[in-house]
Amino acid sequence: PWDGSPAALEGGLVEVHTRTGASTGIFKPRGHLKHPTDLALAHNNIYITDTGSHRIRKVAGFNPADVGTSLGASSLALSTLVGSAGPGDSDGTAAAAKLRSPKGIVFDTKSDRLIVADDGNHKLRAVAWDSGEVTTIDVVSIDGAAGATLGELFGLAFNEDEGTKGTLYISVVDQHRILKLDLDSGAATTD
């Protein structure tokens, strides 16, 4: 069984590492990636922020236990989960929603959804696991200031042990800070 080891994406290849950093196998998904930036593992799928094509990609049926054995001789198919040709800024079904340079991605275990750092739009997006519906996560305040903007987003981390709905940590590159977003209230802080 898989022990939850982290994975890293580099040059269109996915390499899964053990906690000690030892490589356990490499595979290349069939399909084209244009500047893959981050990935998340959930429900035996790999989700990839394909920043250059403004999409969220999916490698379905990924079984981490098979890395280094069955994956060595085969490739898994790459499909588009969210987005279509060109950048944009809209919620909706996975096929109709538009993103602009998505970067960070994390799986929210409390709400069974993906959370995406939609960098070019300075927004956080949620992708519902069951329906594929894409919605914007409202940030009602930052350090008590209502209407503050998120800025250039990059990395995300989710902590299910904080708050009823969990807490999201957000790397905001141009503001040189890490925000802590309470998903219950929508309030973000830098403390």
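Second entry:
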Amino acid sequence: RSMIKNIIARIVLSWPQQWYRYERNKKLKKLYPKIMTESTQPKVAIVRPSRGLIFAEVEEYFEQVRDTYPNIRTFRTHNLPLYDCFNVHIEEVLSDPSYQYIWLNEEDTLPPVKALDAMLEFLKTVDVAAIQYPFNGGWGTIGKSSVTGDILFTGLGCTLVKRKVFESLSKPIFKVDKSFNISSLQWYNNP
């Protein structure tokens, strides 16, 4: 019986302190919403290669994403071969150990609403999440084997990758030493 009184006394004594902490945090979140969420949000680097074009709709999209995910930083390049546009910034991101994810997003690809939420959820079980989007001639950007259903490749228009994937690859990560034949679904070495 004294044990029950002791437990009840602890609950009664700790309740006002926890309630105060909860109310204080609620007020701070209203005053400083980004500060209160920064420590709990993943740190994401967005690597966006460009041919020098800027699409207003895509820019607005990422501004809205930053409202929810304040730990996002965008890395842009242009006037480089496409593979270098990726390599330059991925190396820069990997030099900062605080980034957990790298979101590859091409300049002309407008991700669907809540794309980052969906990809982060998917990355709880896998290392790479890609969003299927239409491509020239009705092709999709995710290629699957018709025999096994395995994913053979994905475009990089909207792809979120765990940091450890890039850390495990030899450098340079992106190169043009192979080509993919879409008809035979096979990779070939470039001459």
